[in-house]
Amino acid sequence: MKPSLRVSRRHFIATTAVALAAPRVLTAQKSEKQLVIGTGEHRYEVFHDWPQLPDKYKWQTTHNVAIDREGLLYVIHEGRENLKDHPSIFVFDPKGKFVRAFGNQFQGGGHGLEVRTEGKEQFLYVTGYQQLKNFAKLTLKGEQVWEKRAPMDSGIYAKDEDTKPAKRWGRDAFMPTNYAFLPDGGFYVADGYGSYRIHRYDKDGNWKSMFGAPGKKDGEFNTPHGIWIDSRPGRDPSVIVADRANARLQWFTFEGKHLKTLDGFILPANIDARGDVLLVPDLSARVTLLDKDNNVIAHLGEDVEWRAEVNSKKLRSAANGEGWVSGKFLHPHDACFDRDGNIFVAEWVHTGRITKLRRLT
After folding, report:
1. Which one is the CATH code of 9-19+43-359: 2.120.10.30, 3.40.50.300, 2.40.37.10, 2.60.40.1270?
2. How many angstroms separate the CA atoms of 76 and 98, rounded?
């Protein structure tokens, strides 16, 4: 497959970003049972603006979502640097009711978010970019276990990048985006906006190695934004990287040896999996499902004319969601399955948007 459009992140932002709009008015969850997207066994009812946020909080630019084993949904916002007293992470129950909020320290740069079970406990792993330039392990209530910054042992970062973070971009800057977790307790951190490398850490958070480099060849990256361990049945586990601005997914061994490349995307942002199915949110107005052989099952919300309209009219910053269309996405930045096969989609829009796709059985 060949991608129909290749867009750099810088160009994408330049053509979509405008001044912050007023927050969208919160309305009660609406049933859209007549609105179904997908095909065959992968059909979903669409519920936009699914979670219910208390009036004392405001939706900001939503980035990532994660589900814990109790079915609670965690949502992280980039947040606004000038609103330090406002939380960046919200938690909702399986019905979309607000449970708790925390994470003020991630305002202005909140990005990646994953829940991981370790023994009998669960923890939240968070990345921060912009001026934060950090990644951290938290309890599910928001207490910090540890925080880390640029791995200076890698030898690729500018002086003081680990001690004096500044809002500076570049290949010698540290701008982590997402995590993937290894069977031995270690993990990877994708430096998706900074060095374009994938860093490997042991279970205690000690840096071990890295792979990748900026470029377009196999094994190279242009915004390696998302990452996942492909442990689907019938294959040796490997690492998948959503190489966003190169419009592709790449597979690697755990040691970083390139295995294969799959084109056919526009701006793939991250990855999740359930059974044999891979879930790939694409920042350019669609969500893709792949089967066990990585063939496309469906491009949920796919509409070429709508995608062009999203970009040309800068709908990302539309006040109160004006101009948005039910059943269509603007900028899916992350997505995850729950245990029942429902999908939650977080979109990169100024006033926030979380959509629940309820699986039809």
Report:
1. 2.120.10.30
2. 14
